[in-house]
Amino acid sequence: MVEINWFSPWADASRNPFAGFSTVYTYCTLLDSPKPEERKSAEEFFAQFKDAVVLIGPTDRLTWHDTSPTPLDEDDVPRVSVHGNLFKTIVSGRYLRHLPETGAYAIIFGLSAMVSVLAIKGGGRAVFAKVMAVLSAAVYVAVAFQLFKTNHLIVPVVAPLCSAFSTSFVGLVWQIVEEEKQKGRIKGMFGAYVSPALVSRMVDSGEEPKLGGIEEDITAYFSDIQSFSSFSEKLSPSRLVELMNEYLTACTDIVQAEGGTLDKYIGDAVVAMYGAPLALPDHAHRACVAALRVQRRVGELREKWMHEGDRWPGIVHRIQTRIGLNSGPAVVGNMGSHTRFNYTMMGDNVNIAARMESGAKKWGVYSMCTETTRLGCEKVADGRVFFRALGRIVVKGRTQPLPIFEMVALSEDVNDANRECVALFEQGLERYYQRDWGGALDLFRRSEPLEVNGEGRAPGSHDNPSLVYIGITERYRAEPPPAEWTGVFEMTEK
């Protein structure tokens, strides 16, 4: 009925003096010895038992039949030691106390919850949280021992620790399962829009796509087929779908191979972004390279369709695509209604990219970008993409002028004629800004024969930058602009 509070081990002679029966009997006889020194030694022996409670029991190893283990002794000891500690417990009143059953359950559930939550916590402080989980368990054990030592209060240790660690283990297993599901959701969500390599990078990096509309630094990509409405007139619906599937597949494969994210298809138009949902420091460079690779691939498709003979009408043999790029902050994320939404981009910089695509027609080029995109591309790999300055424009809906550039070709596709053409054109552009109409016309007329685009030079092409500026310069020479003219051209169409 009483739990023993153990005070000392059996072998502690300073606190538990004991003596065998023969020793006690010898000292008893010495009390009547005629020799004073013998009587004195006997009196000193019995003095240690003054006011003490003496327990009598078998202690000789040959007669140890009544033995018992104790928490303080390595081997079994005479049970008289058990009786002695029990007597001390009763006399001292230092009884062992237990927490109420409800308190024990509260500790089990509380420690389990705390350790489990810390163990499965994710995010940037996951390692710190897991260290705190182990430390919490260790602190609990230390507190439990201290309470037992100072207050003789027994706090459950094994049950709470086993419960905490088993619950944490189950939580970690559940977390791993959920992470695998999340990886599957990410791959499923973005697999149709992003290249498999980029999806794998997203999963491996541990960065979840930040959906719901956040600002990211991206490069917006817009492409469109020149005179696409004519294709609808010349081709049956089934042939048109066949053609567009082949064209869109080729374009999308290149866009995604360079790390781009497909935003949407709008008929024949391809809308994509570089730099979201996974940040790409070189997004401008990737977009420029992708644009020129798409132009190269469209040229290969033209050749393929031409060699298929009468399978396709002549308009297909002259297919051209225009591409516009712009870089800068934009809002990306899930846009739409609560029931239907799309991972997309929006903002002023996205609109400018769309204006680059539509405005390319005005300047007789097929790939056009802003200065921000050019600078971002050249910062990563100067010379990889060959650019040509086309002037400064104000797009519809804006008031600030934008320097615009043609993406002429990738470095491996540039020849001497291209370089000479761009050099003459840009010299003419400088003369144009200086109002040297005659000098500008001379340089534009020298660069025009070297242009890649133009009537009879590129399939489906009727214009080029040199021809455009020849027309503008001739008008200004006939009717000079006002004194405040800065050379900025204002676009009146989207």
Layout of secondary structure:
Elements lengths: L20 H10 L5 H12 L19 E2 L8 E2 H14 L4 E2 L2 H20 L5 H26 L1 E2 L3 H33 L5 H10 L8 E12 L2 H7 L2 H21 L3 E6 L2 E6 L8 H25 L6 H4 L3 E16 L4 E6 L1 H12 L7 E4 H10 L4 E10 L7 E9 L5 H18 L3 H11 L17 H14 L9 E3 L4
Parallel strand pairs: 3-4, 8-10, 11-13
Antiparallel strand pairs: 1-2, 5-7, 5-8, 6-7, 8-9, 10-12, 11-12
Helix pairs in contact: 4-5, 4-6, 6-7, 9-10, 10-13, 14-15, 15-16
Observed structural traits:
two-stranded antiparallel ribbon; 3 domains; 9-stranded mixed beta sheet; alpha+beta; 50% helix; Alpha-Beta Plaits; 13 strands; single chain
What would your notes on this structure say?
With 494 residues, the protein is of the alpha+beta class. It folds into three domains: 21-95, no CATH class; 98-187, no CATH class; 196-414, 2-Layer Sandwich (Alpha-Beta Plaits), CATH 3.30.70.1230. 50% of the residues lie in helices and 16% in strands. Strands 5, 6, 7, 8, 9, 10, 11, 12 and 13 form a nine-stranded mixed beta sheet that branches. A two-stranded antiparallel ribbon has the order 1-2. A two-stranded parallel sheet has the order 3-4. The radius of gyration is 45 Å and the shape is rod-shaped. The protein starts with 20 loop residues before the first helix and ends with a strand. The mean pLDDT is 87.
